[in-house]
Amino acid sequence: MSIRRRITRAAALAASALAVAAGAALVTTGTSAAAPVQTLQVTGTAIVPIPSGQCHGSIDVAFEHVPGRPDQAEVIFTPNGTYGSIPGCEVPTNITWINGIAPFTHTHPVTIADGRTTTVVTPGQGLSLLTTTANTYLNGGPSWGTSGYLWLQP
């Protein structure tokens, strides 16, 4: 067998192995677990209620894809203090998103309590403006919320 033929066979074998590896990666990616959603959070990623008595701290907000549902996102609230972690410090929260689906503004209430809290929202595929805020004047004071854009790949 000539050197040229050996090089050709080696190149063909390498290309085949690469194609199989790429196919396996594609299949693995398509069946993976939840992954972070692309966001641009203009006002940060934490809800910050005003401290009141034994209640204090911030609540981190994160978004993940719901596997098999490209129109949904899981919202994950993680307390970094007593707000949302202990009895008497529950945080009623509204998740609001604006998109191109009538009635254009949608609200999903959730109460953050007993530690890490998750809920699923359905803003639809594409770009949505999304805010998460503690209900107005929690314990008599305002709070800092999050606001930004969420992209669910169509």
Describe this structure in words.
There is one protein chain. By secondary structure, the protein is an alpha+beta fold. The chain has two domains: 1-32; 38-152, Immunoglobulin-like (Sandwich). A five-stranded antiparallel sheet has the order 1-10-8-5-6, with no helix packed on it. A five-stranded antiparallel sheet has the order 7-4-3-2-9, with no helix packed on it. It is elongated. It has one helix and ten strands. Mean pLDDT is 81; it is low at 17-31. The chain has one helix spanning 3-30; strands spanning 38-41, 46-49, 59-66, 69-79, 91-98, 105-112, 117-121, 126-134, 143-144, 146-152.
Describe the structure concisely for a colleague.
The chain has about 150 residues and is α+β, with helices and mostly antiparallel strands.
Please specify the SSE layout and strand pairing.
Blueprint: H1 3-30, E1 38-41, E2 46-49, E3 59-66, E4 69-79, E5 91-98, E6 105-112, E7 117-121, E8 126-134, E9 143-144, E10 146-152
Antiparallel strand pairs: 1-10, 2-3, 2-9, 3-4, 4-7, 5-6, 5-8, 8-10
Tell me the structural class: alpha+beta
What fraction strand? 35-45%
What would you report as the Rg, rounded to the nearest angstrom? Answer: 23 Å
Q: Would you list the SSEs in sequence order as H and E?
A: HEEEEEEEEEE
Helix content: 10-25%
Strand order within the widest sheet? 1-10-8-5-6
Mean pLDDT, to the nearest integer, reads 81
CATH topology of the largest domain: Immunoglobulin-like
Unreliable residue stretches: 17-31
Overall geometry comes to elongated
Number of helices: 1
- What's the CATH C level of the largest domain? Mainly Beta
Largest sheet: 5 strands, antiparallel
Distance between the termini: 51 Å
Domain count: the total is 2
Number-wise, the strands total 10
Q: Indicate the CATH architecture of the largest domain.
A: Sandwich
